[in-house]
Write a structure and sequence with these properties.
Helix content is 67%, strand content 0%. It is mainly α and 118 residues long.
C-alpha cells in the first residue's frame, strides 16, 4: 500500500497507527524513539489528542520514514520523486545559516551544470 492509498485512511490517528504497525513499532518503542510518552502516542492514534507539535510530528515522520504531509493527510499534485526529497528538506533545518548558504551555492552551481554550464 503506497502513500496515495494511505490518504484514504481517515484521520491523522489512523494513519499514525497504520504506519507505526507497518514499521513493527509498539506504542512504547515509537514513544521512546520520539521522546514522547506512550500515553501521548496512544492519544494521538485514538484522536483524544489531535494537535501534535511540529517537533513531535517531525520526529514521528523521521522515525516512521513517512512524509509529514502523508501523516497529516495533505494531498497535492507534487512531482514524482518529491517524496524522496522530504527527509533532505527536514535535515536542512538543523544546519547553521552559513551551511545553508553553502547548500544554496552548491544548488545553483548544479543547476547551471545541467543547463550547459561549467
Amino acid at each position: 500500500m503506497g502513500y496515495d492509498s494511505m490518504m484514504e485512511i481517515k484521520g491523522f490517528g489512523g494513519r499514525l497507527r497504520t504506519y507505526r504497525m507497518r514499521k513493527g513499532f509498539s506504542l512504547q518503542k515509537l514513544a521512546t524513539a520520539v521522546g514522547a510518552s506512550k500515553a501521548h502516542i496512544y492519544d494521538l492514534e485514538t484522536g483524544k489528542s489531535a494537535n501534535p507539535s511540529l517537533g513531535l510530528l517531525t520526529a514521528i515522520s523521521r522515525e516512521l520514514d513517512v512524509p509529514i504531509k502523508v501523516l497529516v493527510g495533505e494531498t497535492s499534485e507534487t512531482a514524482d520523486g518529491e517524496e524522496a526529497l522530504a527527509p533532505l528538506f527536514r535535515d536542512l533545518r538543523d544546519l547553521s545559516p552559513g551551511d545553508i548558504d553553502i547548500i544554496k551555492t552548491l544548488t545553483e552551481q548544479l543547476r547551471g551544470k545541467g543547463k550547459g554550464g561549467r
